[in-house]
Amino acid sequence: MEVLMEKILSRTDIERRLAFPTSSRRAFSMPEGETAVYFEATDTIEKRWNFRLSRRSVITGDWLQFVREKGLKVGDKMFMWREEAATGVRYTVRAERKIFRVWVNVQ
């Protein structure tokens, strides 16, 4: 398992798009001449989300729907990781919120 991102969410992240670490973009193969790559990620309840990662290292697609459905707020934490499996690559996303100094999973 390779952690691609662990980030405290900002206002821009929850209102417009998710800024993605440039250093983790290597985990996605973007064809020459393309401006974005599309990928599917599964959350902790096995719901599938279709995201778009641009060359500018921002994630859109179902991102704002994910934010709304999970009720994410500024200060919540976002994780994304990548796993190699016999059936191919699998991406997983998880959101957490700090409650009484403890980070808990947002379902």
Automatic annotation (TrEMBL):
GO CC terms: nucleus
Superkingdom of origin: Eukaryota
Chief localisation class: nucleus
SMART domains: B3 (SM01019)
Keyword Magnesium part of the UniProt annotation: no
PROSITE patterns in alphabetical order: B3
Gene3D superfamilies per record: DNA-binding pseudobarrel domain
GO terms for MF: DNA binding
Database matches in InterPro entries: B3_DNA-bd, DNA-bd_pseudobarrel_sf
Transmembrane segments: none
Residues of the TF-B3 domain: 3-97
Keywords from the UniProt entry: DNA-binding, Nucleus, Transcription, Transcription regulation
Subcellular location(s) of the protein: Nucleus
Protein name listed in UniProt: TF-B3 domain-containing protein
Originating organism: Salix udensis
